């Protein structure tokens, strides 16, 4: 029994290191090329929780019924917490930058979007089966 527990612990440890490398190194290095591979990406700029520093990062997005949706489905989701704290963001899509107000998606809208764009098992496996998926809708900000 001890040998089995040691073996299972080793497998879990190797998997945890794999997920850490995938989340931090692989995505950080290869994510800019995903757009060229057909994965829709946007460059989103949030303001840090201190409220004074702009932070940019790439994120996967989808369009549905004329709206832009961004999914937070990794363990690391600092950008999402920044967006919740200060929902005014800017995003560049296909070379066009615009200002948006982010709205957290819940209820029927969440169900519809997550059904339209499910996270495949392989993606969840590579990300270490994160416990929660959050989706935000980017609504155009109309400056007066």
Q: How would you describe the overall organization of this protein?
A:
The protein has helices at residues 2-34, 78-85, 107-116, 121-126, and strands at 41-47, 54-64, 67-72, 88-93, 96-104, 134-140. The protein has a single domain, classed as Electron Transport, Fmn-binding Protein, Chain A (Pnp Oxidase, Chain A). The chain is α+β, with helices and mostly antiparallel strands.
Task: Kindly summarize this structure in a few lines.
With 144 residues, the chain is of the alpha+beta class.
Q: List the helices and strands in order.
A: HEEEHEEHHE
Q: Give the CATH class.
A: Mainly Beta
Which strand order does the major sheet show? 1-2-3-6-5-4
The percent of residues in helical segments reads: 25-40%
Rg, alpha carbons:
17 Å
Poorly predicted spans: none
Query: What do we call the CATH topology?
Result: Pnp Oxidase, Chain A
**Name of the CATH architecture:** Roll
- Domain count, please report it: 1
Characterize the main sheet: 6 strands, antiparallel, barrel
User: How many DSSP helices?
Assistant: 4
Shape: elongated
Could you tell me the number of beta strands? 6
Query: Which oligomeric form is depicted?
Result: single chain
Tell me the strand percentage band.
25-35%
Helix/strand/pairing category? alpha+beta
> What is the assigned CATH homologous superfamily?
Electron Transport, Fmn-binding Protein, Chain A
How far apart the termini lie comes to: 69 Å
Give the overall average pLDDT: 82
